[in-house]
Design goal:
Blueprint lengths: L1 E6 L2 E8 L3 E7 L5 E7 L4 E6 L7 E6 L1 H12 L10 E7 L2 E7 L11 H4 L1 H5 L2 E7 L2 E4 L12 E6 L1 H12 L6
Antiparallel strand pairs: 1-2, 2-3, 3-4, 4-5, 5-6, 7-8, 8-11, 9-10, 9-11
Amino acid sequence: MVSEAKADAMDVIESDLPGVGKKHEVELGDGTSLVIVTHNTGQRELYLKPDDDSDSEKLVELSDRLARMVGTILEGAYFQPVQSEHVETMLTEGTLLEWYAVEASSPLVGETLESAHVGRKTGVTVVAIQRDEDVISAPDSQTEIEAEDTLVVIGDRESCDAFETMLTGDEEEE
């Protein structure tokens, strides 16, 4: 089985490798492709495939644990090199994990997760809050949202969009 997905104007081609695992080819935009072979054991192999028909060059082989660590570094979970309002990671088709910066002007500042009705109004779940150097994992309903927090939420695209609208205060009055 081969399927294609579009992600920000880059093609990703997924292929089943019977008895081995899956292969993903990511077009890098310069004619080359990054090929990731994920074995059923969790081991990953990364190859650089040139734009001509020459052989692919094996870049690295990673254990499952190391591949996951490298993946979280690449997605920006450890460090965001560019200041941005939010960062998004696709967990599964239709489920996103997103990081949102809370500006001082946000109407959510000073509210608890319960009093703001974040889940009920938007459908997202706040799974963590980064506050300065601390991380509040699994915040409870009485956790207060503060300016400069980074909220980590999970939800579908529509829910995340609704949360961003609530966070910025751009929602229409009901």
